[in-house]
Amino acid sequence: MEIQLWREILDPYRQAVDELVVKFNHIKYEYQMEGLYSPIEQVNGRLKRISSILEKAQKKGIPLDEIDGKIDDIAGIRIICQFVEDIKTVVEIIKKRSDITIVEEKDYISHAKKSGYRSYHLIVNYVVQTLEGPKELGVEIQIRTLAMNFWATIEHHLQYKYNENMPDEIRQRLLSAAKAVGALDNEMASVRNEIMDAQISNRQKNTVIISILNEIENLYRSANKREVEKIQDEFFKIYKLDDMDMLLKFEKQLDILAENYRAQSITDD
Ligand code: 0O2
Known about the structure:
By secondary structure, this protein is an alpha+beta fold. The chain has nine helices and five strands.
């Protein structure tokens, strides 16, 4: 097939990948802005390489002119979660979206593949707007934990290295490693609440600190410089104590002070 033809086929898939990466990252951003724990840790997208498309088409007996529509992972999105439980949440989020239609679900978490591979796959339909009008495409969304992703990445490299002739010994070791990854995910699930609480309180602390620093910066414009320097010193002392209650109290006092300055500057005008 000519390169121009490949471009015509692949460009809409590229667009789907770009758009979906932005959309899933935005979900993560929304959680963070609400000060909530995000079930999405990381989002990656990729367009399948032409050589891999050809290989798959050959393996599955798909004629070249039917590639578009019959290979469902030309556009691939990978969503990485911290914990196994988050995967369910991400699937629910996707199910509720009006711009994504789930066509097929493959649960390789409850039923790991023979290789030891674990991941949750969704084959979805997604519409992109092109110059020729809307085009509905299939996209594969892989959802897995950081630990599952670590295993799959290493195993994928080894598959590539041995090109379907992986020695039995390596295969067995990978299976043991997959079991260890499963045990790690279970262990992490038991400390999930503690980790989540720590992450949320860290995020809340950062939000308060940013708000205080912004307020101090604003005060430099309206208040007496010496006074602001004193406030700044006071803030550094509290910051070093690493006490959330004191930070919150300081933020409140600063708000009142800044409000007074704002009121004063309006009266002065
Ligand atoms: P690449 O290089 O990632 O694009 P099926 O039609 O269901 O019988 P299909 O279409 O291969 O078979 O779907 P499946 O089994 O759900 O696999 C889709 C993708 O999941 C693969 O794409 C891999 O990315 C990943 N995957 C599946 N099995 C394994 C595995 O054992 N190890 C690793 N590391 N990844 C796996 P591709 O096209 O195989 O590869």
